[in-house]
Design goal:
The complex is a heterodimer of chains A (725) and B (428). Chain A has 725 residues and is α/β, with parallel strands linked by helices. Chain A has 24 helices and 26 strands. Chain B has a five-stranded mixed β-sheet with strand order 6-5-11-8-9. In chain B, helix 3 packs across helix 6, helix 5 crosses helix 6 and helix 14 runs antiparallel to helix 17. The chains are: A alpha/beta (725), B alpha/beta (428).
Chain lengths: 725, 428
């Protein structure tokens, strides 16, 4: 929708701009800079700082560019004497009570106030009275406060109300005693709260773990992609030498707007954990000892070759994390498959594999994250959405705020800061049935009819309730409708059935469908063949054992790549399998006491923060990262290590050329062609219903997050701890 | 003959003038009933707006905006619209709304009902200053109940199909909540921080719906204007300032109080009504329209008539009609310091210039009265005031700046004297 162009004059030059926008938006687009503090493109307009005052013809007063709508024939002067006078006035007022602590302030060098003080400030102060000081609030482990520096722009307040949906900070008092505070002493706990650090234009809200460690101008900036969920938020690592100092968002309007979650921002601390593994380990005479790379690779290759020649190749179990890079996944699968080992899987948080034969080539997610915002009706099933994928929750909130009907079928009620139309609270045992009831309700007057054998199944179900009908109606009535299945579905004992119902519902109601997946690259794991029933590029293959089957057996060799038993939903089983198996090999950035006791060979891995590769997010968007940071520079990269093992195992060297391009092409081709399977799995896992409570813990998603000290001190992590007790 | 007490105060000398039967005995609610019993449709609404426009009634809240014109800004849509009466009266020196609320609350209610009808606003709020909790609020509440009991408010009033529900709302005692958009925020239960305009309340008011805010005196004038007609109304006052105004005269006079008199009366006459100067002292200065208007020296005001034009051309404003009379012997530095303290403690704190500037002004004046001032402080005072003026979301910034600018302009020598004499006042 293009709006009519109108003509305005800025600083004696005419421009055509879109109507309906504020002057500052127009000048920003034109590259004309107007100073500002309270204005932020993603927040509502406050017009309180008065920094953006400009001269507008026919107005006696200078007008705030952030709150003045452009109009035909408007004549604006941004640098005239009266505009500058007004801006200088504001600057002087802001500085009279602002501390002169720039030399020790972390914001120094990237402070909007400091920058504008150079251009608009006076050389010396005319204010002789004692400056105002304020006590600091303890907002928790992530955000440090120096409230004396606050200029009361209220960006942080508006962030809480408008973006997070949870107003954690507010203004209290009035006049000169106005302050930003939580009012009653409490911490700021929302999973996006770290963004307040970025939007605070001064050093009032800062990055607590980073506090007083470095000066910003000494840092280099490297682009990266978050390895902690299936969203793939873009971010910048700020590094000094080889060390990551902090992480800030990199805008990507299709994925993460200008925000990142606290997990994306603070998890990296985990890579500096004391139990980092930097040298290979080898068990010699019963003792796990440091070894050279050659020794370790040699030892592993030997085991692989021996087992390859054995008749029963089922003696090998190969697990891999879904947060590993595409090239690693590809090489790992190549290694195992080429040696004839079919037991390979990444789905260590899944227990129901009865739907494997109905699996799509890679998990469904028909739309890009930002397209969720345009949806008019959304059904979320089995998800603790805010904790699983804070950014997806953000897009859903945006849709809800714009009037979308958002509905849940969930086993637990968690707080969502947006309006919810129907919330069907459903025990795990009834999750599939509740979904089926929505399907049944939808089928009544659906355009796309279901096959009769499925109708028979639905007919056997009880009558849907009003909520089921309302959800069905809402999905059917809106062209832009979306079904979102959460990580709890993935770990559900009727996962296959739930997924089938979702497929059917998406067919019947003509809705898009998206499935959240564990880790940063489950899509990659499917496409590279890190599943027991398919090779790379979806080629079907002789069936191997799935992750759960592997964990319930003892093996001649069990290999964990990027996995710690803690990552596994059935950790106890995996532990036993490790203990019971003849040889255990772990590739990991860390070493735990359990692995020290039980592993026979250990290879240090580089974390995604230190290596090169690509992740494919849930929506099938491939994103590169190329990070050369390293704790142990001389160690081979993960890719080199895998290639050396392949070489040691006497296998032909695979080609990684254009792997990414090939995969991208493959995704594009298959995305449009894979039709929804209108099927229900033949054998439903009814007999082994095991509804142990599965909850997703925000800060326990992977080995790095688990080791991040700041995140582990948050209320979320601490309450999980007390829950587990 | 001088018209006195002809509109808002027309019945206040009767005993228990605040009771509905007494109000009705002097013709009260007749106009409202007439409207209801006529054909209360769009034509009737239009007619009322036209009457108010023709009458030339101007808002008494301070800005003097033509009331009929303001009413005509309300959209003619079917969405929920609101009428708000601004009874927050906290401009220093001003005390006429309080008197109206106490002695003639039904004129406000009838005025609101008529105004609400004229703009198709079916819900009205009367926002009453927090400090009025004891002496005014109970009366206003009582009157509201009376009006409901007499079926003059509510749904389908007197079978006419017209709805108007009225609620009283007690503020919490903040000057800034008298600013109309600060008031609306407060009414919504939020901090009283004025909104940036546009959008104006007629487009985006209470709860985001079209709203008109009028002052108590403005609304209380409506029934009489309808009753007596525009010609009668315009026969009082001047061409551009028709009708009467309640002047709250305070300061060094013998009979301080509220005087409802035609606009345009000479200042000298008003002063005489107020009993003349206290102790026969010489007139030194007058703040003619509430503390936020510019001070005028005695010899300047002596030639003024009390209306919008005359005071504007003298360099000040009629404002709220609160006339602060200052006698010779008053220390203008101390007076300004006390005034500045008001703006320092009463600003809402959202805009940078008010939040930071008003405290600076006050502290500079404090410094001067403590005998630590320097000549350069006077330039600085004016400069700071100039930097606040016009740069804030609402007119509070101007209100804080004007006293400083005008006091220093007219009484520079007093400030200079105090600076040169270590805090000693020229007036003492
Ligand atoms: C700082 C400030 C305080 C104000 N206080 C009052 C007040 O106490 N009562 C009032 O009626 N208007 C007050 N006003 C004016 C209102 O904003 C508004 O103009 C008025 O209520 C409109 O009513 P009217 O059109 O009937 O004058 C104040 C304005 C400002 C800027
Ligand atoms: S803390 Fe920062 S973001 Fe919040 S109001 Fe103060 S300056 Fe603005
Ligand atoms: S940026 Fe416009 S007033 Fe703050």
């Amino acid at each position: 929708m293009s709006e009519p162009k109108i003509t305005i004059t800025i600083d004696d030059q005419e421009y055509k701009v879109n109507s309906g926008q504020m002057l500052i938006e127009a000048t920003d687009q034109l590259g004309i800079h107007i100073p500002r503090f309270c204005y932020h493109e993603k927040l509502s307009i406050a017009a309180n700082c008065r920094m953006c005052l400009v001269e507008v013809e026919n107005s006696t007063n200078a007008l705030p560019a952030c709150a003045t709508e452009v109009s035909e024939g408007m004549v604006v002067k941004t640098t005239s004497e009266s505009a500058e006078l007004a801006q200088q006035a504001t600057m002087e007022f802001l500085l009279i009570n602002h501390p002169l602590d720039c030399p020790i302030c972390d914001q120094g060098g990237e402070c909007e106030l400091q920058d504008l003080a150079y251009s608009h400030g006076r050389n010396e102060s005319r204010f002789e009275v004692k400056k105002r000081t304020l006590p600091d609030d303890n907002l928790g482990p992530l955000i440090s406060t120096d409230m004396t520096r606050c200029i009361l722009c209220t960006r942080c307040v508006r962030f809480g109300t408008e973006i997070a949906g949870l107003p954690e900070l507010g203004t209290i008092g009035r006049g000169e005693s106005s302050t930003i505070s939580t009012f009653v002493e409490k911490t700021v706990d929302h999973e996006l709260s770290g963004n307040m650090i970025d939007i605070c234009p001064v050093g009032a809200l800062n990055n607590k773990p980073y506090r007083y460690t470095d000066r910003t101008w000494e840092l280099d900036q490297i682009e990266s992609v978050s390895p902690h969920d299936c969203v793939g938020s873009n971010m910048f690592l700020h590094v000094k030498g080889d060390k990551i100092k902090r992480i800030v968002p990199k805008a990507n309007p299709e994925i993460n707007e200008v925000w990142i979650s606290d997990r994306d921002r603070f998890a990296f601390d985990g890579i500096y954990s004391d139990d980092r593994l930097t040298v290979p380990m080898l068990r010699k005479n019963g003792v796990l000892e440091e070894a050279t790379w050659e020794e370790a690779i040699d030892a592993f290759s030997k085991v692989l070759i021996t087992l390859q020649n054995k008749k029963s190749k089922n003696g090998v179990a190969a697990l891999i994390s879904s947060s590993t890079a595409l090239n690693e996944q590809y090489l790992y699968a190549y290694l195992m498959r080429s040696l004839g080992f079919n037991n390979i899987d990444h789905r260590i948080r899944q227990i129901d594999f009865t739907g494997d034969s109905l699996d799509p080539i890679f998990p469904n997610f028909d739309i890009k994250p930002h397209q969720i915002e345009n949806m008019k009706s959304i059904l979320i099933i089995g998800s603790d959405l805010r904790k699983e994928t804070p950014l997806i929750a953000h897009w859903v909130k945006k849709a809800a705020d714009q009037g979308a009907s958002v509905n849940f079928i969930n086993q637990e009620y968690s707080e969502y800061y947006f309006p919810i139309d129907n919330f069907i609270l459903s025990g795990q045992e009834a999750l599939a049935e509740n979904l089926a009831l929505v399907l049944k309700a939808s089928n009544d007057d659906a355009v796309n009819k279901l096959p009769s054998h499925i109708e028979d199944v639905l007919n056997a179900l009880p009558t849907p309730s009003l909520s089921h009908y309302q959800i069905a109606k809402s999905l059917a009535n809106h062209e832009q409708s979306f079904l979102l299945s959460g990580l709890l579905c993935h770990s559900h004992s009727e996962y296959a059935l739930i997924r089938s119902y979702l497929n059917l519902l998406s067919y019947v109601s003509n809705s898009s469908f998206g499935e959240l997946t564990h880790g940063a690259n489950a899509t990659g794991a499917y496409l590279t063949g890190c599943i027991p029933h398919r090779k790379a590029f979806g080629e079907s293959h002789e069936l191997g054992l799935n992750a759960l089957e592997m964990c319930t057996k003892n093996h001649q060799l069990i290999v964990l790549y990027g996995i710690e038993p803690e990552d596994c939903l059935y950790q106890e089983k995996l532990n036993q399998s490790i203990v019971g198996s003849q040889t255990t090999v772990q590739f990991s950035p860390f070493i735990t006491p359990f692995m020290k006791e039980n592993a026979d060979i250990m290879f240090p891995l580089k974390t995604p923060y230190e290596s090169k590769g690509a992740f494919i997010n849930a929506s099938g968007m491939i994103q590169d990262f190329n990070l050369q940071l390293d704790l142990a520079k001389d160690n081979p990269s993960n890719q080199e290590l895998l290639l050396q093992i392949i070489e040691g195992s006497k296998l032909p060297m695979p080609s990684l050329d254009n792997l990414k391009e090939k995969i991208k092409k493959f995704i594009d081709e298959t995305k449009n062609t894979h039709n929804r399977l209108l099927e229900i799995p033949e054998k439903v896992l009814k007999t082994t219903k095991n509804y142990s409570s599965v909850s997703s813990h925000l800060y326990d998603v992977d080995s790095i997050t688990r080791r991040s000290r700041p995140l582990q001190q948050t209320k979320d992590a601490l309450s999980q701890f007390s829950e587990d007790q | 003959m001088m018209h006195e007490n002809s509109i808002c105060f027309s019945n206040i000398n009767q005993p228990e003038s605040w009771k509905i039967e007494n109000y009705m005995a002097s013709g009260g609610y007749l106009q409202w009933k007439k409207i209801l019993q006529g054909q209360p449709g769009d034509k009737a609404r239009q007619k009322i707006v036209e009457i108010i426009k023709t009458s030339g009634l101007r808002g008494r809240g301070g800005a003097g905006f033509p009331t009929g014109l303001k009413w005509s800004f309300m959209p003619k849509t079917t969405e929920q619209k609101y009428l708000v009466c601004n009874s927050d009266e906290s401009e220093p020196g001003t005390c006429h709304d309080r008197e109206i609320l106490k002695l003639n609350p039904h004129a406000v209610i009838e005025g609101m009902a008529i105004a609400g009808f004229a703009m198709d606003a079916t819900v009205g709020y009367n926002y009453v200053r927090g400090e009025f909790i004891k002496d005014c609020y109970p009366i206003v509440e009582f009157a509201l109940q009376e009006a409901y009991t007499h079926n003059l408010l509510g749904k389908n009033i007197l079978g006419s199909g017209v709805n108007f529900d009225l609620y009283n709302f007690l503020g919490a005692g903040a000057y800034i909540c008298g600013e109309e958009t600060g008031l609306l925020e407060s009414l919504e239960g939020k901090q009283g921080k004025p909104r940036f305009k546009p959008p104006f309340p007629a487009k985006f008011g209470v709860y985001g719906m079209p709203t008109t805010v009028n002052n108590t005196q403005t609304l209380a004038s409506v029934p009489k204007i309808i009753e007596q007609g525009t010609e009668w109304y315009k026969s009082m006052g001047t061409d551009k300032s028709p009708g009467t105004n309640i002047f709250s005269v305070t300061g060094h006079v013998n009979k301080p109080g509220n005087y409802e008199l035609p606009l345009g009366i000479p200042f000298a006459d008003l002063l005489e009504r107020a009993g003349g100067m206290l102790d026969n002292k010489k007139l030194k200065a007058v703040i003619p329209g509430g503390l936020s208007t510019k001070v005028l020296p005695g010899d300047v005001i002596a030639d003024c008539t009390m209306d919008y034009e005359s005071l504007a051309s003298a360099g000040s404003a009629l404002g709220t009609g609160a006339v602060v009379v200052i006698a010779e012997g008053t220390c203008m530095v101390e007076l300004l310091k006390r005034s500045s303290r008001f703006y320092y403690v009463e600003n809402c704190g959202q805009c940078t210039p008010c939040r930071e500037g008003t405290g600076w002004l006050y502290r500079l004046l404090q410094k001067i009265t403590q005998g630590k001032g320097q000549e350069s402080d006077l330039t600085l005072l004016v400069d700071v005031a100039n930097r606040i003026e016009g740069n804030t979301i609402c007119a509070f910034g101007d209100a804080a700046a004007w006293p400083v600018q005008s006091f220093i302009e007219h009484y520079y020598s007093e400030f200079e004297y105090m600076i040169n004499n270590h805090g000693k006042s020229i007036a003492a």
